Amino acid sequence: MIQKRNSFLAPALLVFILLVTWEIAARFIAIAFILPSPTQVAMKLWELKAILFFVHLPATLLVILTGLLLSIIFGIGIAIWMNGSKIAEKAFYPIIISSQTIPIIALAPIFVLWFGYSLWSKVAVTLLITFFPITVNTYDGLRSSRQEIKELLLTMGASKRDIFFKLQVPSALPHFYSGLKVAVTLSVIGAAIAEWLGAQAGLGFFSRRMMNQFDGAGVFAPIVLLSLVGIALFLMVIALEKITLKWRKTK
Questions:
Q1: pLDDT digits 0-9 by tens, 224-238
Q2: Do 41 and 217 form a contact (C-beta atoms < 8 A)?
Q3: Cα-based torsion angle of the residue sequence 186, 191, 197, 201 in order, rounded to the nearest 10 degrees
Q4: Which of 99, 103, 116, 191 is most buried by a 10 A CB count?
Q5: What does the angle CA 71 – CA 53 – CA 218 come to, to the nearest 5 degrees?
Q6: String of DSSP letters for 161-229
């Protein structure tokens, strides 16, 4: 209990020190449109709570959740396909790797040209940025099952279906959750980039609008919300992992 309490207090104390330092530095510089203080950002969040929480936050969440859902569906599907077919592995794996060498900031305007300012231009960016960790981690997890256990199951008369569900899937689940933890944080970045470059609503769109008005606190307020969304999604994945992997021994 004491160790858990200390593990919580240490980061909380560090965050508190950083916020106090930021507050002092912002008040000393006194240029709110460039460096607003944490208290100014908090006041702006309270002032804009209606439009941020009921207009722009739902729009961003829709982009994030839609992109993540599609990434999970396609990522798991292609990982299973590559694991079961050498031809699929040779065909898809280089393309998956290549997709991450292109800067997302360069592709986002192209998606806007293709899909306009609709939901799908932003989902495409989020999908592209979250697809890689889910696919690669799941694929590596499927391949991580021990060969001697597979041979033992085969000698006991297990079918390919039995090997997949009773050996490969349990081996892949921890890897899948590792990829999902990375993907949920990247999804927030992808949605913000897409909304920044072309959108009619969303936290990234609102942050850009506030920048054009030289409102520093207004720029930081949606960024704080984006960070909280990323943290909340990450914690949800951790909770889901603990529920579904109770059989896994943890230190």
A1: 999 999 999 999 999
A2: yes
A3: -160
A4: 191
A5: 100
A6: HHHIIIIIHHHHHHHHHHHHHHHHHHHHHHHHHHHHHS-SSSHHHHHHHHHHTT-HHHHHHHHHHHHHH
